[in-house]
Amino acid sequence: MESLSRSCILAASACLMATTACANDDNALLLADSLLVTPCTGEQERLFEPFRFQADFLRWYNNGKTGFVEMRKGFRAATMSDAVYLEVTDIGKLKGILDETPDAVIELQSGLVRISLVLAAACPDGNQPMVAGPGLVTFDSFGNHMDGTISGSASFDLFDGRTIGDPDPTPLARNAFLTFSMTVRRGPPYQEFTNQAN
Q1: Are 150 and 139 in contact (CB under 8 A)?
Q2: What is the pLDDT of residues 25-73, one digit of tens each?
Q3: Alpha-carbon gap, residue 47 to 14, rounded angstroms
Q4: Which residue in 71, 142, 144, 174 is deepest, having the highest Cβ count within 10 Å?
Q5: Does any domain span residue 197?
Q6: Three-state SS for 50?
Q7: Quick check: 38 and 163 in contact, CB under 8 A?
Q8: Using CB atoms within 10 A of its CB, is residue 178 exposed (0-12), middle (13-18) or buried (19+)?
């Protein structure tokens, strides 16, 4: 009986956590005219036409001067989920730019911001590193502190990361457009390690 009660408590806690995580205004949407993934399932390719990805779980985490916005669909493990990752390679530098010019347009070619797409759920056998090529990113807000807001948009083409350095790589997706908005939160499920700093 004690074991059953404990199981019920844990299950209720998990449900409450999921409900709390879902009950916020965090959102992200990635649209593209089309996306070709090779392979997707088994050896088969898949053409998404159009491609639409909507995230309902967003979190900010950082490692030293580098930070990430993870935009995930669902609350399963990252290795089993579709997700978009926006990486800020130098948080201090980006903050300096936005402090001086709040409506600054960041070029992806600069390397200050990187964007990638993972389709671990939709294409479980996919092995292409899908990364944004030349494009633009703007931030409406970049408050990477507790309860701060991170929001903005980006436009780009997606490429296979193994070919993006070629003279004339073929895009996997053209005219991709990403919007995102989130509140920075701490504690599970938003934070995996309690010693993360802003």
Answers
A1: yes
A2: 899 999 999 999 999 999 999 999 999 999 999 999 998 899 999 999 8
A3: 36
A4: 71
A5: no
A6: coil
A7: no
A8: buried
Tell me the residue range of the domain where 103 lies: 25-183
Mean per-residue pLDDT, 13-24 = 45
Residues 18-45 as b/e (b if ≥16 CB within 10 A, e otherwise) read eeebeeeebbbbbebeebbbeebeeeee
66, two tokens: 């580098």
Residue 10 in any domain: the answer is: no
Residue 164 is which amino acid? I
The full DSSP string for 52-107 is: EEEESEEEEEEETTEEEEEEESSSS-GGGSEEEEEEES-HHHHHHHHHH-TTPEEE
CA gap 169, 36 in Å, rounded: 14
Q: What is the pLDDT of residues 2-12, one digit of tens each?
A: 343 344 333 43
Q: What is the pTM of this model?
A: 0.84
Split into its structural domains, the chain has a count of 1
Q: What is the mean pLDDT of the chain?
A: 86
Say if 128 falls within a structural domain.
yes
Three-state SS for 168? Answer: coil
Residue 5 lies in a domain: no
